[in-house]
Specification:
seven-stranded mixed beta sheet, 24% strand, 28 strands, Aldehyde Oxidoreductase, domain 4, 4 domains, single chain, alpha+beta
């Protein structure tokens, strides 16, 4: 660590610099902006899950006092607005169907054309002087529907007699990966075979800041400016320009502070397009703001798969093969990311942290009359790991081998690294047994018996579970960063990623301060505006530090090279005699030096050759096609009241290998948040639709349970720093391990607690009612 970086360099627990601004109410979120002349918008949403639109009459609404515009699909067609692009238009993200048939590409228009396919789909967009006037006017729009039968379950959607959402049918994809023949041979020869059919429940994404979109149109420049909460301003710009059929240079996207993302903000939502069209039509700014009810009805959702998982073992408990068959409910439309990301990550991680010689995965997806699915924290990774960890515990029960020994016996050993799995993933590093042992120690594994005995004295059931995991962190393979030396001696970092809770303003400054040897406080991080940072791919997939951080190191190298040339001129010394350290360029063996600030001022003032004039800066587009593989082990203990079915987490410990730890405080914070989300999925969160009407039943926080502070014990979290070999920083990623490791740890603990009462399986969410019913079924006399 450099002397200048001091206690603020890489590896130090630096408090987040952005927090002071946020806790003092000085954040700049989407709803904090209201330019002069701004109009307000409201969306008319379909009350039906499946229906033909026979007629829309907006005349009364258009004549309402204060209403400035009413948009329907007809108006958007007049303006040449295109459908929101799907992955079928993004070749790098597609995969083939098993039979070679083409992938479907149904259009997703910002306002429904001819037909609505989920309750809450946008049908009309009203713009008025106030939000209340716009909302009132939507009630004057007359829409004539022909109701159609809906389908909300993936299995039902693929039945021959199911209602069709699309003319081509309800099958979205049917793909496979791995060696099916080798897997069948292994299963035929196995001494033991275990199977766990299970559900990954559908989840609603709950970020603190509701979705907001504010658009302006500059007719003189032909420039659209969209301000919205997003995980990538660059991606929003690219997709919006496509939908509006204008060059990207005519679109600017701005995202200041954003209150959470979790994957759902990676999508270009219809409202982003609608405010842009309305702003151009009216020649004034237009803002739309969702309320919580609209978030439930219209924000993309997460997970929702059923999976049939099987594991083959030999007589010594060695894993021979794994087979996964998953069916995804992707909702009514294809989004630009989530439905295929889940499938790809399941295929990548089918063998998890274990040395499994053969693997096969078949994955299908069905269209249903539900809200579309998109990425959700740990997308695909959580599903694959949950399947494998449930299988391992099931195998331990069948074989009689201790669950810890069974895992230890089958881990990929560190000496095998780099290791290519049976599904083609290349693990560069990992000490899985050591991580598990560290987690067991943190959880006081050996003290479990006493705690279980105490719970029994209280009349309760008590169990423990383990969740070992590995992730495939990556996302888009290109990222951008620029470092610019300022006249005051500071450095501005222009980053192509976005910060919506990760603490990038802090961790990026730590990396740059250490690399350049300047004070941490002199580093300023800028992101979230395509006018300032045109390049980049945004924040998703636990990729930001690996990609943007690596780009920053490359940009620092370029800055130093240019600064060395400037210093060579100012100091009248050969460039090879100049070295850079502690924020200054020094002539070796002398006390002659030029600081970054002096070099920057010389370049700006023209006191150097013409080729060196301008700003003292360096930039880099960092590209890598590889992935990183964060991993870890989570251990949970849970206590169950058999009278009520209430399950309470008593203890929780986790150890995560995220590669190089830039800032322990931030890593631990990511772990805490991810664990909370994983616990929520395991024990309480569930999206429910009525099978007959397709209506969302869990449509508010009165009907949809989220974890609260009282639902979690003090979390013991730690790291196991095993440097990644595939990027210059050595990081692996820290954003999604908690949400990946928690569900299997919690459910394995719960099944362990319920096992003495005869329960060997329970699905998520294991609500008190579900647990109570499982106990009653297990206790009921069996019919002969």
């Amino acid at each position: 660590m450099s002397a200048s970086a001091g206690s603020f360099g890489v590896g130090q627990p630096v408090r987040r610099v952005e927090d002071r601004r946020l806790v003092l109410g000085q954040g700049r979120f989407g709803d904090d902006f209201g330019p002069p002349g701004m109009a307000h918008a409201y969306v008319l949403r379909s009350p039906h899950a499946h229906a033909r639109i026979l007629h829309i009459d907006a005349a009364r609404a258009s004549k309402t006092k204060g209403v400035r515009a009413v948009l329907t699909a007809a108006e958007l067609a007049e303006d040449g607005v295109k459908p929101i692009p799907t992955w079928s238009r993004q070749p790098t993200s597609t995969f083939p169907n098993r039979d070679g048939s083409p992938l479907p590409d149904p259009p997703y228009y910002p306002l429904a054309r001819d037909k609505v396919r989920f309750a809450g789909e946008a049908v009309a967009f009203v713009v008025a002087e106030t939000r209340t006037l716009a909302q009132d006017a939507t009630e004057r729009i007359e829409v004539t529907y022909e109701e159609l039968p809906p389908v909300v379950g993936a299995e039902r959607a693929l039945a021959q007699d199911a209602p069709r959402l699309w003319d081509a049918g309800n099958l979205c994809f049917d793909t496979e990966h791995g060696d099916a023949a080798a897997v069948e041979r292994a299963f035929a020869a196995a001494a033991h075979v275990v199977r766990v059919w299970h559900v990954n429940n559908r989840l609603i994404v709950h970020y603190m800041e509701p979705r907001i979109a504010l658009a302006q149109y500059d007719a003189a420049q032909g420039l659209y400016t969209l301000r919205c909460g997003t995980q990538s301003v660059q991606r929003q710009r690219l997709v919006l320009s496509h939908v509006l059929d204008v060059p990207p240079a005519r679109v600017r996207v701005v995202a200041d502070d954003v209150g959470g993302g979790f994957g759902a903000r990676s999508f270009l939502y219809p409202e982003h397009i609608l405010v842009s069209v309305a702003a151009k039509r009216l020649g004034r700014p237009v803002k739309w703001r969702a309320d919580r009810g609209e978030n439930f009805l219209s924000d993309t959702q997460g997970r929702d798969q059923i999976m049939d998982a099987a594991l083959a073992l030999d007589k010594e408990g060695r894993f021979l093969a794994v087979k996964l068959e998953a069916l995804h409910n992707i909702g009514a439309y294809i989004t630009t990311l989530g439905h295929w990301a889940a499938a790809i990550n399941i295929m990548r991680l089918a063998t998890s942290v274990y040395a499994v010689p053969a693997a096969y995965a078949r994955l299908r997806a069905a269209f249903t009359n539900c809200v579309p699915i998109n990425a959700y924290r740990g997308v695909g990774r959580a599903e694959a790991i949950y399947a494998m960890e449930r299988l391992v515990d099931a195998a331990a029960r069948v074989t009689g081998i201790d669950r810890i020994e069974l895992r230890r016996r089958n881990f990929v050993p560190p000496e095998a690294m780099p290791y290519k799995t049976a599904v083609g993933s290349n693990y560069d590093s990992g000490e899985f047994a050591a991580v598990m042992q560290k987690a067991l120690a943190a959880a006081d594994w050996n003290g479990f018996a006493a705690r279980k005995a105490a719970a029994r004295r209280r009349g309760n059931l008590y169990g423990r579970g383990v969740g070992c995991y590995i992730e495939s962190a990556g996302g888009q393979p290109l990222e951008y960063a620029k470092l610019r030396a300022e006249p005051d001696g500071g450095v501005t970092v222009l980053a192509g990623t976005h910060n919506h809770g990760q603490g990038h303003e802090t961790s990026y400054a730590q990396v740059v301060a250490e690399r350049l040897g300047i004070p941490f406080a002199k580093v300023r991080v800028v992101f979230g505006d395509t006018a300032l940072v045109e390049k980049g791919a945004g924040t998703h997939g636990s990729r930001s530090m690996r990609m943007a951080g690596s780009a920053m190191l490359g940009a620092a190298k370029a800055l130093i090279e240019k600064g060395t040339a400037i210093a060579s001129h100012l100091l009248e010394a050969a460039a090879e005699d100049i070295e850079f350290a502690a924020g200054a360029f020094h002539v070796r063996g002398t006390d002659r030096a030029v600081s970054l600030a002096e070099a920057a001022n010389a370049a700006r003032d023209g006191a150097v050759p013409e080729s060196l004039r301008g700003e003292l800066a360096g930039d880099l587009e960092y590209r890598t096609e590889g992935l990183t593989f964060p991993n870890g082990c989570h251990v949970c203990e849970i206590e169950v009241d058999p009278e009520t079915g209430k399950a309470k987490i008593a203890r929780y410990a986790a150890v995560d290998d995220v590669g190089r730890v830039i800032n322990p405080l931030l890593v631990h914070g990511q772990a805490h948040g991810g664990i909370a989300q994983g616990v929520g999925q395991a024990l309480m969160e569930h999206v429910a639709y009525d099978a007959e009407t397709g209506q969302l039943l869990s449509g508010s926080l009165m009907d949809y349970a989220l974890p609260r502070a009282a639902d979690l014990p003090p979390l013991v979290v730690d790291t196991h720093e095993m440097l990644c070999r595939t990027n210059p920083i050595g990081v692996k990623g820290a954003g999604e391990g908690g949400a990946t490791g928690a569900p299997p740890a919690v459910i394995n603990a719960l099944v362990d607690a319920l096992a003495e009462a005869g329960v060997t399986h329970i699905d998520m969410p294991a609500t008190p009612e579900a647990v109570w019913r499982a106990l009653k079924v297990a206790a009921a006399p069996r019919r002969t």
